[in-house]
Amino acid sequence: MTADTVGGVWTYAIDLCRALCEGGARIALATSGAWPTPRQRAEAAAVPRLSLHPSAFRLEWMRDPWADVARAGAWLLDLERETAPDVVHLNGYVHGARPFRAPVLVVGHSCVLSWWEAVRGGAPPREWDRYAREVEAGLRGADAVAAPSRAMAAALQRHYGPLRGIEVVPNGRDPRLFAPRAKEPFVMGVGRVWDEAKGLASLDRVAARLPWPVRIAGEERHPDGGRAETRRAEMLGCLPPEALAECLGRAAIYAHPARYEPFGLSVVEAALSGCALVLSDLPGLREIWGDAAVFVAAGDEEGLGTELAALAGDEPRRRSLGARARERALGLDPAATAASTLDLYRRLPDRHRATVGTEAEGPACAS
Q: N or C end of the chain, less CB within 10 A?
C-alpha cells in the first residue's frame, strides 16, 4: 500500500492498515511526499504485521515532480518484487500505469483537476496537462478504482473518464479515539491552513464578528514553501492526535467552510466528538451528512458568520445537531472501510485476469 505523509491520506492509510492487520493481513506501507515524522513512525510501529518503507519522493501534485515520480515508480516495482504482495493498493494515481505483477487498486481521494474546478472555477492552466495525462493513464491501468464518496467518483469520471465502474468505499475514524466532553463556547476548525480549498481563511475572517472565539488546528506551512497568515482566530498549529481529540471534545461547534471536499476525515472526527457541524454545501459533504449538519454555500462568508452566530446562541439546537452528527459518524469507522476494501481485494484477481486476457487478445473488431 502507498500513502503520502503530508495530508489526510496518511490518516486513512494507517487506520485502514490497522484494521486489516488486526484481521491477519500483512502490509508493506510505502510512503512518499516527505520523510515520516517521529509520530508517524510510532503510529506505524504500533500496527502488528505492518512494515514501513519510507521515502521522500515528491508527489504527483507537487511542483516539478516527474523525475521523482519516475524514481518512485521504479522503487515500488522493486518493493513488489521483494515483498510479493497479493494486491497493490495505490493511494495515488500515476503509478497505476506501472507494470505490477499483482492486481492493482487505485483509490482516488482528491485530484488537482477537481480541486481547480471547485476552488478556482475552471480548468487548470496548461502546465497541468501532463498531470492530467499521467493520472488518466494510472486510472486506466488499474484493475479497479475506488473513491470515498459518490461525489469523488463522479469527479474522476468527469475529468478522466470514461472509466470502468468505480467502487464507493467511505472512509471512517476509530470511534474509540474521539468522544464528547463537557462542551465549551468556542468554534473549532481543522485542516491544512495553507490549502485554500479548506476555506480556513474565511473562518479566520468571520471570527471577529462572532460572540465566541475561533480556534484553528492545522499545518500553516505549504510543502512547496510559504506560510498561511491568519489574523483573528487562535492558531493551535499541528496538534498531536490526543490533544486534537481533547480539543474537539470540548468544542461546541465545528466549522468546515471548504470550497472542495471529497470526503472530510476531520468532519468525522468532529462528529464523533459531538460537535454541531456547520459545513459548506458541497456534494460530498451533503451526501455524507444530510440532515446532521447546517450547510452554507461555499465561499459565503456572510452566511457562515450568520449561521455560526445563530448556533452559538441556541444550545438546544447545538445539542440536537451534535447528537445526530455523532450517530451518523458511528457508522463511518475503519472496520467498515476495511471490510469493504477487503471484499474489493478478493474480487481483484478476476478483474486482473480479465484485463490481461483482453490485452493479450488485442482490440476486438467491429462486425
A: C
Joined grid coordinates for residue 109: 481521494
- 14: confidence class by pLDDT, cuts 50, 70, 90: very high
Per-domain boundaries in the chain? 2-172+335-361, 184-329
Backbone φ and ψ for 206, nearest 5 degrees, come out as: -85, -10
- From residue 244, alpha-carbon distances to 7, 221, 263, 270 in Å are 15, 18, 19, 10
pLDDT digits 0-9 by tens, 62-73: 999 999 999 999
Domain 184-329 indexed as CATH 3.40.50.300? no
CA gap 206, 301 in Å, rounded? 7
User: Do 2-172+335-361 and 184-329 share a fold?
Assistant: yes
> What order of strands is seen across the sheet that includes strand 184-190?
234-237, 214-217, 184-190, 251-256, 276-280, 294-296
Q: What is the mean pLDDT of residues 131-148?
A: 97
Non-local CB neighbours of 237 within 8 Å, separated by 6+ positions:
217, 218, 219, 220
Q: Measuring CA to CA, how many Å separate 28 from each of 37, 55, 58, 116, 358?
A: 18, 13, 19, 32, 30
Burial 176-200 (b: 16+ CB within 10 A, else e): eebebeebeebbbbbbbbbbbbbbb
Work out the percent of the chain whose per-residue pLDDT is above 90.
Answer: 85
* Average pLDDT score over the chain: 93
215-221: average pLDDT: 86
